[in-house]
Amino acid sequence: MNEISIDNKMVNKNTSGNLLLPAEKLPECWNQEERMSALFSSFCSKSANPQDWTSQYKFWHNLIYEWLKYTMRCSFSIIDLNEAFKRRDCTLLCLVTVIEELLRNNEIIQETDFLQEPCETWTAWSIDIFIKKPINWSFSKVKNYIVGQNTNNTEVRYIHLRIVRELGDIILSIADIKKDNVLFPISEIVEYCKSKTKKQISENTVRLVLEWLRHRKKVAFRKNFNSSSELLVKITTESK
Q: Which superkingdom, per the lineage (predicted)?
């Protein structure tokens, strides 16, 4: 069996069915009209009012993470966030700034960059990551990242790297439980994640996380020649 990669076209971009957090997971201020009106509005000048700016950003930073964690997804767009946090007639005017800041802090990455194939050699890959492209797979901070203009495009999809890392740990743990197995069908990994977390997770999300694990050389993909479409995942148990 030859090693292959996941076909990026197989990563479903459909984002219908967004869920809001349950009431017990929403911030206490969610039903406070005045406070929520301020949090939904555009950001004030950071230099003029750094305390309010930081408070507003921290609110959305934490809420987006909690929503992604609860819904077991790592990919999202501004459209998704608008749908998930729809509140009466309020319009979210602050999300572009939130996305820009998440990008600057290397907490998210555009999905197109996330799915980009790595260079063939380690040297070339390192040059590409540390010189040509400031976002990398090890989550290190790059200070002078210039945020692109795509943040105004509400359809652009982003990957939340902390969520990917957490879901990656869940996927890798299957090798500790099922030690007699070498290869796992993706469908089995999906069911394992559902069983372990007691939550629903889509195959699309699992494929995205597996792609990240492949970049980290934690997994490899094999074609199952006994099946017309089944893709098998080999999980590396060696510590690196």
A: Eukaryota
pTM: 0.79
Q: Looking at residue 208, what is its pLDDT?
A: 96
Distance between CA 204 and CA 14 in Å, rounded? Answer: 9
The pLDDT score that the predictor gives to residue 145 is 41
CB 6 within 8 A of CB 220: no
Tell me which residue of 223, 172, 214, 218 sits closest to 193, measured CA to CA.
Answer: 172
Distances (CA, A) of 17 to 14, 72, 84, 155, 168: 9, 13, 9, 16, 23
| Rounded Cα gap, residues 158 and 149, in angstroms | 14
Query: Across residues 211-228, what is the average pLDDT?
Result: 82
Question: 224 pLDDT exceeds 80?
Answer: no
Q: How far apart are the first and last CA of the chain?
A: 24
Fill in the DSSP letter of residue 199: S
| 29/219 Cα distance (integer angstroms) | 42
Query: Hey, is 232 helix, strand or coil?
Result: strand
169, 191, 195, 210 from 176: Cα distances, Å: 11, 16, 15, 17
Q: How far is Cα 6 from Cα 20, in angstroms, rounded to an integer? A: 30
> Rounded distance, CA 220 to CA 236, Å?
8
